[in-house]
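Reference record
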Amino acid sequence: MFPELTRDDVFRIETNRLWLRWACINDAEAIQRMMSVKHVAEMTATWPYPLLDGEVERRIFEMRKFNSLGNGLQLVMTLKGEPDEVIGLVGGSFNLAQTFNIGYALDADYHGQGYATESVQALMDAVFTLSDASQTTAHVRIFNESSCRVLVKSGFTQEGSGIQDMPARGGKTLSDKYVLTRSRWNTLKGWKEPVVEALVIDIGINALDAGVLAEQRLTTNNMHL
């Protein structure tokens, strides 16, 4: 479970280039456009293709409800210079074993620029800082090589392949399983506890490559959602 800190829609995560924040109804058009691209939707487990009328609005409502309960985090990605324009989705939920399961999607126009990796690394810092999760898992369709690279760059290791439930893809689908444990994350980060000042997590994304967390702190920001 996440603490009260994440259960208000002022919560957001800052990276070098991005804001990760709660979705709002004004994001519906951008999410609709992004998830209406067949090859983007078909790499996800739960987004149908094509989208039905009202589906995006319904999901935004569910994402906000989900976040408010603390059972996980479902966030949108925006560029810092364009905080109202959604370019992707990233989030996940806890299971009964305190494993966090992650998923993400990125607008096709922004592929190949490192945004998915930046978002996943930032979310992992939030998960292991703000919850008691012992590990994070991700399931990737076996031919989704770009998503596999995102996870490897974020510290995940592959732990075999198998059949995974992907309801929007017609049921059970062959996928690769990736895992990032808390102990491995600690090793990669050279972790020390952050100083809590307010409601924004400011994360040095390049820390994973350097093997040291350059900076972890919570800062204030008055940007309107």
